[in-house]
Amino acid sequence: MLDPQSVPNALPSAVAPNALGAFWMPFTANKAFKAHPRLLARAEGMYYFTPGGEPILDGTAGLWCVNAGHARSEITAAIREQAGVMDFAPTFNLAHPLAFAAASKLALMFPAGLDHVFFTNSGSEAVDTALKIALAYQKAIGQGTRTRLIGRERGYHGTGFGGISVGGIVNNRRAFGSLGGVDHLRHTHLPENAFSIGQPAHGADLADDLERMVALHGAETIAAVIVEPLAGSTGVLVPPVGYLERLRDIATRHGIVLIFDEVITAFGRLGSATAADHFGVRPDLIACAKGLTNATVPMGAVVAANHIHAAIVDAGPAGIELFHGYTYSAHPLACAAAIATLDLYVADGLFGRAAALAPHFAAAVHALRGHRHVVDIRSLGLVAGIELAPRDGAPGVRATELFQRAFDSGLLVRVTGETIALSPPLIISEAQIDEIFGRIGIILDDLG
Ligand SMILES: Cc1ncc(COP(=O)(O)O)c(C=O)c1O
Question: What span, in angstroms and rounded, lies between the C-alpha atoms of 194 and 388?
Fold first, then answer.
């Protein structure tokens, strides 16, 4: 056994309790943050509260995830109760009842024909799981030459190696490299669509880029194409009218598995359970996370079409059909949280509420057109992006400054590049929508 006395510096004596150094923060400018920390201590409904008790109106549902609003007692009570009943149970060759109940509830909520659920612990794991299921499916149906994965420029699919490879954000790959055998469709952001309300008119033909991939690589090499139906993290890019339908059609014609990454669009963001429902386009696999548990306990999932599950599981050989899984797949606390969350969405009619609020939300954000620095506004459902002109030689700084000023004035927004992104909890009121965009307008006009 290790004797701490015998190992010099075994205990990190340089670390003081509550010092800021030990926590290596994700996707954060650590040095800048620690020079000027912003802390959140409590949350309830539409608000965070700082350690000093100052309220912060949550315009982003945390990180696109607290769709039912903060600290919902229906969910927190279910988690508390489950923690006292059974803390953990393995789901490798064993299971517990909540795992089946959570999977059934999720499958019922998602599009008909996608009836099988593989649980993960995050969106990144859901994406990598979906990519692996697509590859396993092609192999299972005798299409083992199909190993190529197609993503899209400006796509964000989390931070696993699969996700950063099919993702279209160079900074997320620069220090690490990426998987081979991956290519990317063009993104769907067209200047002629600036200030579109809802789905932009131009760009359905960008889906033909998948035909270009087929011509370039051969359909027999392509396993799957993955897109966010609405791209969030690279600035709220709404799909052009007809784009997703066309992508579905091309994928079907060439035997390519279509994966929707719905990590931010599922659970009401666009006014329906899924973006697939909203757009009326059914993919073969849906990756989701975040709103699945209202972000109370980490959980993600892949929801698979029946033909995919049948090919891998029903028609598979005896023994383990898919060599994949996580210790915490279907963790009991996450399952309790998911069941309570999905019930709450239904009981409170939150997806319908988001759909009903969407016109007011769109009018409020588009009223910012004409304010200083605003070069484009994009919105759909309860998600919006306000793109600002960059400062000369200082990309992203203006938007970051707006974020800081908003936070200091008690409003949480999100910055992605030059875009301010809003995705509030679905419980938001019309008055709170007006407050968010009214405050942003004031800050914009005062910003250098
Ligand atoms: C579309 C999309 N996919 C995947 C992820 C990764 O999810 P996680 O951070 O839970 O791994 C995100 C996170 O924002 C996302 O927006």
Answer: 12
Select from 156, 166, 297 the residue to mutate for testing ligand 1; criterion: most ligand atoms less than 8 Å from CB: 156
What is the whole-number distance in angstroms between the Cα of residue 138 and the centre of ligand 1? 25
Residue 396 CB coordination number (10 Å):
15
The structure tokens 């607290």 sit at: 66
The verdict on the CB of residue 262 being under 6 Å from ligand 1 is no
Rounded (5°) CA angle 311-312-318:
115
Instruction: Please tell me if the CB atom of residue 291 comes closer than 6 angstroms to any atom of ligand 1.
Output: no
pLDDT by residue, tens only, the chain of 448 residues: 445 455 444 455 567 877 899 999 999 999 999 999 999 999 999 999 999 999 999 999 999 999 999 999 999 999 999 999 999 999 999 999 999 999 999 999 999 999 999 999 999 999 999 999 999 999 999 999 999 999 999 999 999 999 999 999 999 999 999 999 999 999 999 999 999 999 999 999 999 999 999 999 999 999 999 999 999 999 999 999 999 999 999 999 999 999 999 999 999 999 999 999 999 999 999 999 999 999 999 999 999 999 999 999 999 999 999 999 999 999 999 999 999 999 999 999 999 999 999 999 999 999 999 999 999 999 999 999 999 999 999 999 999 999 999 999 999 999 999 999 999 999 999 999 999 999 999 999 999 8
Pocket lining: 302 vs ligand 1, CB cutoff 6 Å? no
| DSSP code at position 67 | T
Q: At what angle do helices 350-366 and 332-347 cross, to 10 degrees?
A: 70
Ligand 1 and 124: CB distance under 6 A: yes
- Given a contact cutoff of 8 angstroms between Cβ atoms, the answer to whether 329 and 118 are in contact is yes
Ligand 1 pocket, residue 157 CB under 6 Å: yes
Helix axes 332-347, 97-109, angle to 10 degrees: 40
Which uninterrupted H or E stretch holds 379?
Answer: strand 374-380
- What would the DSSP string read from start to end of 409-445? TTEE-EEETTEEEE---TT--HHHHHHHHHHHHHHHH
Query: How far away, in angstroms, is 7 Cα from ligand 1 center?
Result: 40
Q: Is the whole-model pTM more than 0.90?
A: yes
The kind and range of the H/E element at 81 are helix 73-85
